[in-house]
Amino acid sequence: MPRKVSLDELNRLTVEDFKTADKYPYALILDNVRSLNNVGSVFRTADAFRAEKIYLCGITGTPPHRDITKTALGATESVEWEYAADVIGLVEELKVQGWVVAAVEQAEGSVGLQNFLPDSNKKTAFVFGNEVAGVNNQIVEIADFVLEIPQFGTKHSLNIAVSAGIVCWDFLLKINKNLT
């Protein structure tokens, strides 16, 4: 009969060990995300799936904030993050540095997540947009591609924190065959 394991049995990294551990070659860009709970949830996801960095852009809230801290459960201390007021400038800078930039959005010509094949030799930045308006149209236009999560129900979108979790896990599965 299975049993739940205790927190001690999980053997998680300490914050100090996490900071020096190798990260997976991807970053998350949150552009104009209104909900501080969503921001905190994305921090937790970035910690769980060892993202290299989170960029918080536009009106997206930044730590320290009570609502971010509440949902991040300490991940704001482990995950590297940076605020960038200008998301377009940030994306252009990352592209110059050799990053592949994917806007996570529903758009013409998008690549379905099931068909996404990351280049394990390049870093990928995933852009997530505002809860109502989505990813900024200018980012959709300058991104290397648009990545779309297939959906089969009646709703037309997913919560940004849920989308980030799906994209991160999919990316890790595809670049690290040892996870399966």
From TrEMBL:
GO molecular function: RNA binding; RNA methyltransferase activity
Sorted UniProt keywords: Methyltransferase, Transferase
Family annotation (Gene3D superfamilies): 3.40.1280.10
Cellular component, GO annotation: cytosol
Pfam families attached to this UniProt entry: SpoU_methylase
GO terms (BP aspect): methylation; RNA processing
Segments forming domain tRNA/rRNA methyltransferase SpoU type: 27-169
Protein name: TrmH family RNA methyltransferase
